[in-house]
Amino acid sequence: MGIYLFLIGAFDLKFRGEYNKHAQLWMESIHCQLVGSLAILSTEVSVLLLTFLTLEKYICIVYPFRCLRPRKCRTITVLILIWITGFIVALIPLTNKEFFKNYYGTNGVCFPLHSEDTGSTGAQIYSVTIFLGVNLAAFIIIVFSYGSMFYSVHQSAITATEIRNQVKKEMILAKRFFFITTFERGLELHAKVTVFAEGCHGHLAKQLYKKFDLRANCDPQTYGIGLKELWIIDEKKWKPGRVDHTVGWPLDRHTYGGSFLYHLNEGEPLVALGFVVGLDYQNPYLSPFKEFQRWKHHPSIQPTLEGGKRIAYGARALNEGGFQSIPKLTFPGGLLIGCSPGFMNVPKIKGTHTAMKSGILAAESIFNQLTSENLQSKTIGLHVPEYEDNIKKSWVWKELYTVRNIRPSCHGILGVYGGMLYTGVFYWILRGMEPWTLKHKGSDSDQLKPAKDCTPIEYPKPDGQISFDLLSSVALSGTNHEHDQPAHLTLKDDSIPVNRNLSIYDGPEQRFCPAGVYEFVPLEQGDGFRLQINAQNCVHCKTCDIKDPSQNINWVVPEGGGGPAYNGM
Known about the structure:
Layout: H1 2-15, H2 19-28, H3 30-62, H4 72-95, H5 97-100, H6 121-159, H7 166-182, E1 194-196, H8 203-212, E2 223-232, E3 243-247, E4 257-263, E5 270-278, H9 288-295, H10 302-305, E6 309-319, E7 330-331, E8 334-336, H11 352-370, H12 385-393, H13 395-402, H14 416-430, H15 470-475, E9 489-491, H16 496-505, H17 509-512, E10 518-522, E11 529-533, H18 543-547, E12 553-555
């Protein structure tokens, strides 16, 4: 249609002011015939495409899960047939001049829409067949399909048992009808090798560990939750390049954790500060967020922040298992890189360099495998064991092996103090060459003690200047999710949070989450509580999926790419 309009415009410029002089010649010219055929081609192809897309929606919505799976070959075949049909319809009037006469030249725009007598019965019959036959049939199909879809949606709204009132029913009706107009089929992506780089505790990697038993020969992964803030401080207190690290306070000796405070050298007085708490802690009353806020009041930290302004907040889990917790890295059709398997150097709290190196080695290994002359795979997905061999030969493996005992050394009776003593005596002297490898205690979800065996922790109230409440902090993360989407924080059993977690551990969900997602609220009728999930607050830290003592929470990917929008973090 664009070409048609361009040519009509071009000839309009050519004949402007003298159209009556050239009108008859123009309407009988080959140019007019070709331009007219382009217009019909565009119109009919558009009608057929719209009909095809409508039928696809109709089948998927009125008969869900019963239609054939989308196939590239079938779609291409239909598109080719549509274009062939369009060309046939457009070119037929040019094949028999005696029968169709001047079919496209009955008017100045070379488009056969005029109903006056053209002097050709054949042309009239053809126009009626196309415009009142084919197009009318397509129109009826489209109207019937959308009517059926709307009826199906309406019926589903009526029969939905969870609808409590008319307002909710109409909302479901509106949402499903909106789905009709925005529907797009999901895609299947097929690859010989898929590289999984989801970061710490990935949703897909978690499933791969179970399916391929990748953790059969390693310790369970252990994690920490890192909380971070970005501040603008008084320029007089700003010392670009300064780095502070602390261990311990305000945590007790049996809880692994520490902090950092970096004076950034980015042109303005910015400091990045954060606090990490090992998720193998035992006291269910501990709140990592409140420990972080309390830490900022330490005499060596608070003066730096006084007079400043907090501009960002965020949280994310990080791998702390190290060398002992690295799973099998390859399986048929894929491999794991970066923080997905856990290549972080725990004492340095750094993993970017090892993640990048693992990605480089993965790319090289895959390329070598794909270009090998002896490429033979027993499975459809390509297995690349060479990648794991290359990791073990690289400096990544050596670096992680060297520091392997530092984190688990904190599990002894002396706790963090014992870990510091071990590091000072063995690491700094032997540099990780000791002939033994310490083990982790087990999964972080198994470490909590019953609430009756622990002392509740009294946290000071936030002052609004140095320390802050949870919800105002979440607001600075920029997190956002569509409120009417299904919660991406799912429960395997709705009864467990109250019957087990609340009764035994006093509901640790409401404390270990750094975004206020979980809260136990009184029942509307009768005594007792229920777990309320404020999924829109989630900052995607994965702590709940890791620390839940019942392993009842399953973090899945939210709809529409929602989540935190960190700026400068």
